[in-house]
Design a protein that fits this description.
The complex is a heterodimer of chains A (114) and B (112). Chain A has 114 residues and is mostly beta strands. Chain A contains no helices and eleven strands. In chain A, strand 4 and strand 5 form a beta hairpin. The N and C termini of chain A lie far apart (32 Å). Chain B has 112 residues and is mostly beta strands. In chain B, the strands form three sheets. In chain B, strands 2, 5, 6, 10, 11 and 12 form a six-stranded mixed β-sheet that branches. Chain B is globular. Classes of the chains: A mainly beta (114), B mainly beta (112).
């Protein structure tokens, strides 16, 4: 089983619908992140959480919200989806106990808003 | 502000040729630096990382990268490319706040 699991892997939704992307991890890491990947733009940070009670906006948080339900779970919501939120979404984790810790990524969720 | 630049959007090399992918970072102090690879339909896999010490770091799959403070660069290299190396490569940096900032990526095509 993957250490960082994202569900669903693919989703098509209609404009104006609310949608939630879920992420769970078995790595025991305290830090979790949501990124969005668009062609030619790389990965951009939407939200990040350093522990259950510490949630922070990234560079492109408008139109998104998150919930850290437990140390292992971090969900991303689109309250009212719009077509320009069509993208590949990645959840990632890292461990603050490791000095120069890298981020570990899930397999991604491909979201299409029609 | 912290930033990462990958000047090459696409690179094409022949199988067996050497490879160098460029990465420049902008940060006041020495950041933590990473190279990731993304194969089609996959997540990102860490190739190597640098945070201090020896400026030449070895990674998986035969990749290496060299940190050059004077040039603010962290270029990825491989002496002989294999067809399976075709993928997208991302350079990333992280400051002490543990926000990972990514470059826009370089897509590698390998010719048989």
């Amino acid at each position: 089983d993957a250490d960082v699991t994202q569900t669903p892997r693919n989703r098509i939704t209609k404009t104006g619908k609310r949608i939630m992307l879920e992420c769970s991890q078995t790595k025991g890491h305290d830090r979790m992140y949501w990124y969005r990947q668009d062609p030619g733009l790389g990965l951009r940070l939407i939200y990040y959480s350093f522990d259950v009670k510490d949630i922070n906006k990234g560079e492109i948080s408008d139109g998104y919200s998150v919930s850290r339900q437990a140390q292992a779970k971090f969900s991303l919501s689109l309250e009212s989806a719009i077509p320009n939120q069509t993208a590949l979404y990645f959840c990632a984790t890292s461990d603050s106990r490791q000095g120069a810790a890298e981020a570990f990524f899930g397999q991604g969720t491909r979201l299409t808003v029609v | 502000a912290q930033s990462v630049t990958q000047p090459d959007i696409h690179i094409t090399v022949s199988e067996g040729a050497s490879l160098e992918l460029r990465c420049n970072y902008s940060y006041g102090a020495t950041p933590y630096l990473f190279w990731y690879v993304q194969s089609p339909g996959q997540g990102l896999q860490l190739l190597l990382k640098y945070f201090s010490g020896d400026t030449l770091v070895q990674g998986i799959k035969g990749f290496e990268a060299e940190f050059k403070r004077s040039q603010s660069s962290f270029n990825l290299r491989k002496p002989s490319v294999h067809w399976s190396d075709a993928a997208e490569y991302f350079c990333a940096s992280s400051s002490g706040t543990y926000k990972y900032i990514f470059g826009t990526g370089t897509r590698l095509k390998v010719l048989a």
